[in-house]
Amino acid sequence: MNHDTAIAVANVFCIANQKGGVGKTTTAINLAAALAAMDKRVLLVDLDPQGNATMGSGIDKNKVEQNLYQVLIGDSTIAQARVRSEAGGYDVLPANRELSGAEIDLIQMDQREQQLKQAIEHVLGDYDFILIDCPPTLSLLTLNGLASAHGVIIPMQCEYFALEGLSDLVNTIKRVHRNINPELQLIGLLRVMFDTRVTLQQQVSAQIETHFGDKVFKAVVPRNVRLAEAPSHGLPGIVYDKNSRGAKAYIEFGHELIKRVKKEALRQLARPRG
Ligand code: ATP
Ligand code: MG
Where are the membrane-spanning stretches (predicted)? Predict the structure, then answer.
């Protein structure tokens, strides 16, 4: 394996957007597989009771012995609950409907928003990247994700209301940064399901670039049916059809993310201490 010293301890990133169906899970699965294909050690945490990241990684969410729910309530550890995605070449901390009960259990716990972070701390050394696929809410589960992460990756569609929804999420990230997790940063915005033929999408894309500058990833994921078909085969899109336009875009995104992480690590090193 090829481990860069600059990224020796896992980078923990949430894939988040409180809007439903914008491509979070597709991004989480394909980014995990793209990084694994570059010999990175990856854990994909499924923080959504829908369990789509689990299923899309080729793991039957209803047949796993343990899942994130037991980890969050302290009945299990990530080391015990993780499962290998043979299809993707990465580990998965699976989820299923049971996880929806976690909200209620967590409310009664001390440090209710820190449970995932505490669990992840034990496996930080096992991975180069830990990716957290968030549910489409700003719930206690998502808060656990944001409290655990170094950064947030926001997949978004270039639609009319996209920027409006984005400001809620950016404000939440700022609040979490201020009150719960000072390490949390916005890593970047990824434009997904992009259709170059739609003028409105080009306009919104340009607006996003104006607003967010170099926080916008250069890689753009096109609308591509192969990406949508892949989960029903239990495969990441980049494994299902690695020559598809969607797969190529996610591989390019993986490379771009690694470059961005290295640049950030160097900047941190250059920062004066104290
Ligand atoms: P949720 O909010 O429910 O968790 P999500 O944000 O995780 O949804 P996905 O499940 O990744 O979104 O995607 C929603 C749907 O769009 C899925 O059917 C998926 O296969 C499809 N999809 C995602 N990205 C693309 C793409 N680039 N091209 C075509 N279809 C896509
Ligand atoms: Mg999802």
Answer: none
